[in-house]
Design brief:
The complex is a heterodimer of chains A (504) and B (225). Chain A has 504 residues and is mainly alpha-helical. Chain A is built from 22 helices and six strands. In chain A, the strands form two sheets. Chain A has a four-stranded mixed beta sheet with strand order 1-2-3-4, with helices on one face. Classes of the chains: A mainly alpha (504), B mainly alpha (225). The A-B interface holds A 38, 41, 45, 77, 80, 84, 88, 176-179, 181-182, 184-186, 188-189, 192-193, 196, 198 and B 19-20, 23-24, 27, 31, 34, 41, 46, 49-50, 53, 56-57, 60-61, 63-64, 144, 146-147, 150-151, 153-155, 158-159.
């Protein structure tokens, strides 16, 4: 009876003791790993670079469905350092010829592998904290809109985990010190080749993190990125590498490990297949709806005689737009001052994120197009479009405009801006403030002649109030179709422009 | 009697870490063969990427060339370090030349980047690896600096394209107008790496003040006597 009661106690005591040993070893290995020079340097470069970029990213107006994706690149650097150092750490006992001493201890090789894997997990966790910090910073910016995706946010830390576990596995398979650097070159090469632009969806998503070569922002439900499946795929990869490492370092006799490897491989395959399915039919249909008939998806709000119809994620930005519109409107004269405007957000989502398609100008009177991005150059581009519609009536007519009205349009667009001449350069395609140029806009670009540029520059140099009074007084003449630049100069009391007055 | 250097050639060749160089070379050749294996899809950019990756792979292997488990023993022999290092480099360079020729020939001729330019890049990578190893031996105390040097080279290869100022334009494609100027800069880098390697092949001054009479590995005051 006594023996029967004592035996279980002895059996449970051993795993507990070795469990504690593994934890102690893992703590030691974590400290060593995180204090290695390459890991420290990688974290320093990653954090420094992230902080530097996040200060000014998206001109202070991030869309969180883009910001989550932007957290993925930096962790790869940390991942490479962790791969290198974890590999080095596993080989330490061999390098110092202490394998023989360790073999007589109660902690078997596979338990030591587990400790190394736990140290890698700690590095991944730390990366997760950095990613969370970066995303929170973006989300707390006053101009933030949209929704982040947990799948996208997990990709960075999981990449570190995958790379680190591969480092541990590699050390258990090949004891050469040159295996890890060569593996990194191979991974780099595979990454470059797999993400080549002409590759299909399935191959592209097999790499650790998948970027999008685009500046387009779409509503979060139209992205069509299989972020959650990709996170599952990465988890499967990490588990496979980790369990294989345990398996080859003597854990083969453990049935749970063998079953675990099978499960992890299955998980990886499920993730890989599911993420390779391409954009779902529902998303494609939603993209068509949002591009062709956005009015069905949008919410409208009114501010001072202007209606703003935008996708639900952008409603918080209405006040910023209203401020810009009010600034332009206050400079207009005649009937234009009270003309009802409809600011509608339009996107071209049919070709996905990387299809940078142009949007046709609106033909409805009083309708102005606004995009999904804001801040920086987007503001003067928008005010130019608003001024164009106030003067010409529709966006299409403003795009085709090639006469002296352009002077009034550009002055109205820029006069209320903090640094009008700098903005003039920024909205022009060639960043010039002299000569003729194309003026960028959300839809059709506008055109300025050299003479008009000269007049706009001259107007912007004069006091705003003085010019505003003249513009309002001469509004009918200034906005008459086919008015020449010389006539505009005469109406505003400026010298006749010396430069050419020919449209491009 | 034959000169010492000739006598030393065989023992040095025997102690060279050929496995590292061999593994790196095989990986490099596999990478270089990739455009041929993928068939019609290969383009100039792809060929350039594989050649750069393959040159980096070989350089990483060559970073182990000065690894010498017997360094602490051989530090005391009368043959200077310059001779011992020189012999190792002498053994690596012909292998590298043959290997690089093979790698270049593996890339199909229509998509192959300009040979002179890409060869300067590969030579610079190799020179940086050897200079790094020589510097590590010169400054440090370890017998096998290869791994750390390979790590450093790898870090340079990863961070270089990311953080090098845009106007340096070291990593440009062949159809870029800055290709020629970029390769002048590569050549300067190559010369700098060779200069560092040559300087580091000399014996460091005896560090009497700090370390007393204990001679660190590689320092062999008596050999100069």
């Amino acid at each position: 009876m006594t023996a029967a009661t004592e035996t279980p106690a002895a059996v449970t005591a051993v795993p507990r003791a070795s469990g504690a040993a593994v934890i102690a070893l893992a703590r030691f290995e974590t400290r060593r790993l995180l204090l290695r020079a390459p890991v420290l340097a990688a974290f320093a470069v990653y954090i420094g670079w992230t902080v530097w970029r996040t200060r000014t990213s998206w001109d202070g107006f991030p869309a969180l469905q883009d910001a989550d994706r932007a957290t993925q690149g930096g962790p790869l650097l940390v991942g490479l350092a962790v791969l290198f150092c974890a590999n080095h750490a596993v080989l330490r006992s061999r390098r110092h010829d202490t394998d023989r001493h360790l073999d007589v201890l109660v902690v078997q090789p596979w338990r030591r592998t587990v400790a190394h894997l736990l140290s890698v997990a700690a590095a991944a966790l730390l990366t997760g904290v950095c990613v969370a910090g970066q995303f929170t910073w973006e989300a707390l910016k006053p101009g933030a809109v949209g929704h982040g995706s947990p799948g996208e946010l997990l990709a960075g830390p999981l990449s570190v985990l995958v790379l680190g576990t591969i480092g541990v596995l590699l050390a258990r398979l090949l004891t050469s010190p040159f295996a890890a650097p060569l593996l990194i070159v191979l991974l780099f090469f595979l990454h470059t080749v797999a993400t080549a632009p002409d590759n299909g969806h399935t191959v592209r998503w097999l790499v650790l993190t998948v970027g999008e070569n685009t500046a387009t922002t779409l509503p979060s439900d139209l992205l069509g990125r299989p972020a959650a499946w990709h996170a599952l795929y990465l988890t499967g990869l990490a588990l496979t590498a980790a369990l294989l490492a345990v398996l080859v370092s003597g854990g083969a006799r453990l049935r749970t490990v063998r079953a675990g490897v099978v499960g992890a491989v299955a998980l990886t395959l499920v993730g890989a297949v599911a993420q390779g399915q391409g954009v779902s039919r529902e998303t494609t249909e939603a993209r068509v709806r949002a591009s062709a008939a956005p009015e069905k998806e949008q919410k409208c709000a009114e501010r001072d005689g202007t209606t703003y119809c935008v996708f639900p994620e952008w409603t918080v930005r209405t006040d910023d737009w209203a401020e810009a519109v009010a600034g332009v409107r206050s400079l207009a004269g005649g009937a234009a001052r009270d003309r009802p405007l409809l600011v509608r957000q339009r996107i071209e989502a049919r070709y996905g994120l990387d299809g940078d398609a142009a949007i046709a100008p609106a033909t409805r009177p009083g309708q102005v197009t606004v995009g999904t991005a804001w801040g920086g150059n987007r503001v003067p581009e928008f005010t130019a479009a608003v001024a164009g519609v106030l003067v010409a009536g529709t966006e299409a007519k403003a795009g085709a405009m090639c006469d002296g009205r352009m002077v009034t349009v550009m002055w109205m667009a820029l006069a209320g801006r903090p640094d009008p001449v700098a903005d003039l350069r920024r909205v022009r395609l060639d960043d010039s403030d002299r000569g003729s140029a194309i003026v960028l806009s959300q839809t059709e670009p506008l055109r300025m002649t050299a003479a008009q540029t000269e007049l706009v520059r001259e107007l912007l140099r004069r006091p705003e109030r003085e010019v505003a009074a003249k513009v309002k007084a001469e509004w009918a003449g200034l906005t008459a179709p086919k008015v020449t630049s010389d006539q505009v100069a005469a109406l505003l009391g400026l010298d006749e422009p010396e430069e050419k007055d020919e449209c491009l | 009697m034959r000169p010492v250097a000739v006598e030393l050639l065989r023992p040095v060749a025997r102690t060279m870490p050929w496995r590292a160089v061999g593994a790196a070379g095989v990986l490099g050749l596999l990478l270089a063969a990739a455009p041929r294996l993928t068939g019609d899809q290969a383009d100039g950019w792809y060929a350039l990427t594989v050649l750069r990756a393959s040159a980096l792979a070989f350089a990483l292997g060559a970073a182990f060339a000065l690894d010498d488990p017997a360094r602490h023993t051989t530090a005391a022999v009368p043959t200077r370090r310059a001779v011992r290092h020189g012999l190792r480099v002498l053994l690596v360079v012909p292998v590298a030349a043959v290997w690089w020729t093979a790698a270049l020939l593996l890339v199909p001729a229509p998509v192959r980047p300009p040979v002179a330019g890409i060869t300067v890049e590969a030579a610079t990578a190799l020179a940086l690896a050897l200079a790094g190893a020589a510097l590590a031996v010169h400054r440090g105390d370890g017998a096998r600096p290869g791994r750390a040097v390979a790590g450093g080279l790898l870090a340079g290869a990863v961070l270089g394209p990311l953080f090098a100022p845009g106007h340096w334009a070291l990593f440009v494609p062949p159809d870029d107008e800055r290709w020629a100027a970029a390769h002048d800069r590569w050549a300067v880098l190559l010369c700098a790496a060779v200069a560092v390697a040559v300087v580091c092949a000399t014996e460091p001054r005896r560090r009497l003040g700090r370390r007393g009479l204990r001679s660190p590995s590689g320092t062999s005051g008596p050999s100069r006597a």
